[in-house]
Specification:
The structure is a homohexamer. The first copy, chain A, is an alpha+beta fold. Chain A has one domain: GHMP Kinase, N-terminal domain (Ribosomal Protein S5, domain 2, 2-Layer Sandwich). Chain A contains 6 helices and 9 strands, in the order ββββαααβαββαββα. In chain A, helix 2 packs across helix 4 and helix 4 packs parallel to helix 6. The interface between A and B is medium-sized, with 33 and 33 residues. Chains A, B, C, D, E, F: InterPro entries: ExoRNase_PH_dom1, ExoRNase_PH_dom2, ExoRNase_PH_dom2_sf, PNPase/RNase_PH_dom_sf, Ribosomal_Su5_D2-typ_SF, RNase_PH, RNase_PH_bac-type, RNase_PH_CS. Chains A, B, C, D, E, F: Keywords: Nucleotidyltransferase, RNA-binding, rRNA processing, Transferase, tRNA processing, tRNA-binding. Chains A, B, C, D, E, F: This is Ribonuclease PH.
Chain lengths: 237, 237, 237, 237, 237, 237
C-alpha cells in the first residue's frame, strides 16, 4: 500500500484553474494534490540576441519556490544571490519541454516567458509546472491570436509531465513528497498529447533499476499523461 | 473623483484569509483589492549570531514579488543575483514594524521569519504585507502557545499599515497603482491597534507638500488603520 | 539634559566647505559636529537608458562609508560584494531629495552623479549628506552655467535635512550617535528652502509615538532646516 | 552513414590513462576520440556539515571546461562569476552516478572530491567524465586502502556512461559533436558493471521520439557501456 | 624638463598628518602633492582562521578610491559588486609591505587592519598609501603599548615607498598622473628605513628598459625613500 | 645544495609542445619540470569597447588553475564566484608581457585571447605561462598570416619569463614549489629576446634584500631567459 493510499496508477487530484492573474497574457494555477504551482505566460517583444533576425520566436521558462513552500523554510534564492543547480535544471527542463510543441517561426520574433512559481510543494513540482505551463502558454497564444499577432497552429500539440517511481518494490504514479523521499527510483516523463516522448529522466536513488522496471514506469507515465492531457483539454474548452 | 471611484477615505475591499499554507506555522493571504500578498510565518530555532545568549528572540521579514505580479514582467531577483534597493527597503520596514509589537524576551531564543510574497500587485503591496503579516505572526505564536513554547502576551498589540497620498489636490486613502502613479505625494503609515505611530514615510513625488497636507494624510491613515485592525480582529476570532 | 549638553533645539556646529576636490565639478565637505561627509557632484554626458530622448536630465546619488568611519571597523562593501540595504535606502533618499529641487528639463540630457562618502560618522550621516550635496550640486550647475551648458533656474530651491528624535522623553534636534542609540523615536526630515516638505521618515525605536510628539519633531526640524538653509546661502555667497 | 563513418554501434577510440597527476590521490585522463577529460580524485578529511556524525562519507564532483576546449572560445566561468546551469546539471549527474556505486559507510567520515575538467571537447563530455572518474575514484580508494584508511568493498561496482542518439533516422552510439548537433534525440545512460541502470536522460531535440526508438537507444547503450567497463577493468589491472 | 617642473630627483610636497580620525587607533592623512590618502589602522581582536593558535598576529590592508578621486568619475566598486584586479593587487602589496617590518609574534593573536582610501588621486596612490600607512600603524601600536597590550620592538623598521619612471628619456622620481600617463617605464619601490628592499615592481609601458635604466631608477628611489623616512620620523616625534 | 639538486643557475627540464589543441588557432603545452601549463591563443573578431575605431588590435590573457593542480585541492574559482586577487594579478601580468612584443596596429581590429591553464603546479606557473603563451601567440599569428589576415612583423620579439630567489643565502634560478616555500626573496623577470626588461617583480618574503642580491638575481634571470628564448626558437622552427 502506498503511504497516500492511492492505487499504483492513480494520480492525485489535479486541477487546472485558468486566468488567475490580472496582468499575465496567460495564467494557470495548477494543483497536483498539495503541490500548487502558479504559471504565468508573459509576452515580450524582445528576443534573445542570438536569435535576432531569424524570423523565429522563443519560449523560455523560469522556476522558483516561495521560501515556505516546503516543510522546512528554505533560503530565498534572491537573498542568497543565485539560483541553485536544482532550480536551473528544472527551468531548463520546462523551457525545452514547451519549445518541443511550439512552432517557433509562427510565433514571430517574440518571446513568451513562462514563470512557474511553487506556492506550496508536496512532490512533483516540475511535472505540475510543465502541465500547468501548457495551459498558460495556450492562453497567451490565444490572447495573441485575438489581436491578430499570430495565426495558424502555433501550438503543435499538448505537453504534460508526470513522475513515477519504484516505492516498496512497486512501480507507482505521481509520487508525493513522502513517497518520493522513500522511493528507490525516481523518474520524470514529459510526453505530448499524441504520445511522443519529449524528456525522460530516471535516477536510481538507492539500488540501480532494471530495464523491466523502467518499462513499467514508462507504461504508468503514458497512462497518467494521457489523463493529464484530457484535463488540459477540459480546462481550455 | 478618484480613478477608482472610491470616496477619499474609502479602503479597497480588504480580505484576510488564514491558514492558507499546509506547512507554515502561521499564514495569511491578504488582499487589498487587486493587490494580493501571501504571508507566511516560519518558526526557526536558530537566532542571529549577534543575539545569542541574550534570552531574547527575533522577528525578521523578507519580501518578494513574483515576476509577473506586475503589468510588465519584471526580472526575477533570484536570476539577477541580488535584491533591489526597493525590496530591501520594504523588508526592513516590515521587520521593524512587526518587532515593534512583539515582546521579544517572551519569544525565547527563537526567530520567526515572515515571508511576504506578492502574488499580484496593484499598489500598496508593503502596507498589505504588514497588515497580513500580523495575522500570520499571530497564528505562529498561537501555534507555539498550543505547544507550550511561549506564554503570556507575546504580541503586545495589533499592527497595520496603509498608504495615503495627494491625488488631484485631494488627500486620499489606500491608493491603487493607477492613483499612485499619478499622485503628488505618497505616504505610508504603520500604526498599532491603540493608535501609536510606528513608522511614517512621506515622499513628495512632484511638488513638496505642506504641514497641513501631511496632517490630512495622517488623519486619513489613522481612520483607515482603525478599520484594518478591526478586520484583523475578525479574522482571528 | 542631552548627553551632548546641547539645548533641545540646538544644532551641532555645522560647516560647509566648498571646492575641496581638484577634479569634481562641484564639491563640499560638510561637517555636522564629528560627522564628516565629502560630497562631490560629477557631470556625466550619459543618461539612464530609460530617459533617453526625453529632453530631460537626471540627478542620482551614491552613498558610502569608509570602513573605519565608525567606532567599530565595518566590512568594506566593495569587498563583501554588495551594498547593504541601509546604503541603498540612503542613496535612494538622497537622490530623490535632490531631484525634488532640480528642473530636470533645464539640465538637458545629462546626468549629475552626487557621491556622498562618510569620512567620519557620529550620527546623522544621511542628513549631513543631503545638506552638503546641495552645495556640491549648486557648484556643479554653476560650473555648467559658466560654460553655457545650462541657463535659467536649474535649481528651483534649497534642500536640506535634519534628524530629530525623542530622547529621555524630550524632542531634540540633530542627534549624535550616542543620543541616537538611546532615542525612542528617530525621524529624518528633508525640506526645501521655502518650507515645503520633501521627505519624512519617522521610526519608533522603542515605544510607538503619538501625533503630538510627531508634531514637536516636525516643528524642531522646520527650525533646524531653516538654519541649515541659511548656512548654505552663506556658503555659496 | 554517420558523419564519423563509424558503425551505428561503434564507440570512438577510448583510452583511460591512470596516474596522470603528481598530486591527486587518484587520477585518469580519459579520451573518447577528441573529447579529453582530466579526472582527479582528491581525498579530503572534511565532510559536508549536514553529514557530520553519521559515520558515513561522501563523494562529490565538480565539472569544468577550459575556455578553448570548444570550437569557439567560451567565457571562463570563474570570470563570469558563476557556473552555468549546464555545468551544475552535469556535476550533479556525475556526483550522483559515483555515489550509486560507493559504500559510503565504508568510506568513513571523509569526502572524495572528483574534478572532471574538459581539456578538449568533441561531444559526450559528461559520459567520458563519468567513465574516467570511476578510474580516478578507484585509485583514490586503493591509495586509502594501502594506508589502512579503508577496508572491504568500498566500490560496489563499476559505473560508466555513454550517449546515444537518433541521427538521420538511425539509432547510433557515442555521438561526437557534429553528430550531436544534428541529432533528433539525445540520450545519456549511466549503468553499472552488472547492468543496472543508474541514470537515464533522454531529450527530443526536434521531433518527439517513440518507445521503440527509446528501446533501441537503451540496447545500444547497454552494449557500449559493457565495453567501457571492460576497458576500465583493463585500465586498473 | 618634467611637466611638473620638478627636478628629476625632486619629490612632490609631502605631508603626513596624524590623528585625523576620531575612531581609529591610528590614522594618517598623507599627501604627495595632489594625491591624498586617508590611512586608518584598526585593531581587531580576531585573526584569520589559518593563523589561530600560533601565537602570532597579522597585519592586513584594504585599498579603495572614492569614485570622484579621479579626473573622470569611476564606478563605485561596492556598486559594481567586486574589487578590480588593480585594487586587489595594490592592497596585497600594501599588506605585504607592512608585514615586512612588523614583528608578528610580538603583536599577539590580533589583527591590525589598515584601510587606505584615496580621497584625491594624482598618481602614486599606492606609494603614498604605504608611506602613510606606516604612520597609522605606528600610532596604533603605540595605542596598544599605552594599554600594555604589546611590549618590545613591534615595529622593526620604517617602511616607505616611491614611484620612479623614465619620462622623456630621463629617470625621474615620484611621478604625478600627467607624467605617469606619458612615461615609458613605471616602477614602484618599497624600502625599509635601513635601506633594505622589500618590493620592486617595474613595468615597461612602451619600450623595454635596460639594466642601466633600472639601476638609475633604483638609485632615485633609494634617495627618495630616505627623505620619506625622515618625514615619517618627524611626523611621529 | 638546492633541494632540487640543481646548480644555482640551472633551469628545470623545459619542454614546449605545440599544436596540442584541436580547436585553438595556436596552442602550447609548456612544462617547467612538474609545472605544466596549457596555453591556447584564440582569435576573436571582437575588440574591447574602448579600443573601437582606433585601427589597433588587442592581446589579453586569462589564467586559471585546475582545483587539484596543487598539493592540496583548492576551491574552484568558478564555484566560489570570483577570481582571487592572485589570479587577477597573474593574468594582468601575462597580458602586459605579451602586449609588450606585439605590434597592435598590425593586428587590425581583432583580439587574441590567451588562456593559460595550470594542469599541474610545482612553482613558477606564471613564468611558465608567459614562456608558453609566446609560442601559442606565435602560432595564432602564423595561422592568421596563412589566411592573409596579417602581414609584416606582428611579433616584434620573443618574450619569456623566469623566477629567481634567494634560497639558503644563495641566488638560484627557476625555483620549484619546495624551494619557493623556503626562499627569502622571490622575484619574477620578464624579458625580450633582445634582452630588454619588460617586467620585474621582486618581493622579500622574510628579510629585506640588498641591491647586490638583486643584481645577482637579475643576472641569473638574464641567462635563464636567454636559454628559454633559444627553446622557443627551436620549438617554432
Amino acid at each position: 500500500m502506498r503511504p497516500s493510499k492511492r492505487a499504483a496508477d492513480e494520480l492525485r487530484a489535479v486541477t487546472l484553474e485558468r486566468s488567475v492573474s490580472k496582468h499575465a497574457e496567460g495564467s494557470c494555477l495548477v494543483k497536483f494534490g498539495d503541490t500548487h504551482v502558479l504559471c504565468t505566460a508573459s509576452l515580450e517583444e524582445r528576443i534573445p540576441p542570438w536569435l535576432r533576425g531569424q524570423g523565429r520566436g522563443w519560449v523560455t521558462a523560469e522556476y522558483g519556490m516561495l521560501p515556505r513552500a516546503t516543510g522546512e523554510r528554505m533560503r530565498r534564492e534572491a537573498s542568497s544571490g543565485k539560483q541553485s543547480g536544482r532550480t536551473q535544471e528544472i527551468q531548463r527542463l520546462i523551457g525545452r519541454s514547451l519549445r518541443a510543441i511550439v512552432d517557433l517561426p509562427l510565433l514571430g520574433e517574440r518571446q513568451i516567458s513562462v514563470d512557474c512559481d511553487v506556492i506550496q510543494a508536496d512532490g512533483g513540482t516540475r511535472t505540475a509546472a510543465i502541465t500547468g505551463a501548457w495551459v498558460a502558454l495556450h492562453d497567451c497564444i490565444e490572447w495573441m491570436r485575438a489581436r491578430d499577432m499570430v495565426a495558424g497552429k502555433v501550438l503543435k500539440d499538448h505537453i504534460a509531465a508526470i513522475s513515477c517511481g519504484i516505492h516498496g518494490g512497486q512501480a507507482v504514479l505521481d509520487l508525493d513528497y513522502l513517497e518520493d523521499s522513500d522511493a528507490d527510483t525516481d523518474a520524470n516523463f514529459v510526453m505530448t498529447g499524441s504520445g511522443g516522448i519529449v524528456e525522460i529522466q530516471g535516477t536510481a536513488e538507492g539500488e540501480p533499476f532494471s530495464e523491466e522496471q523502467f518499462a513499467q514506469l514508462l507504461a504508468l507515465a503514458k497512462s497518467g499523461i494521457g489523463r493529464l492531457v484530457d484535463l488540459q483539454k477540459m480546462a481550455i474548452s
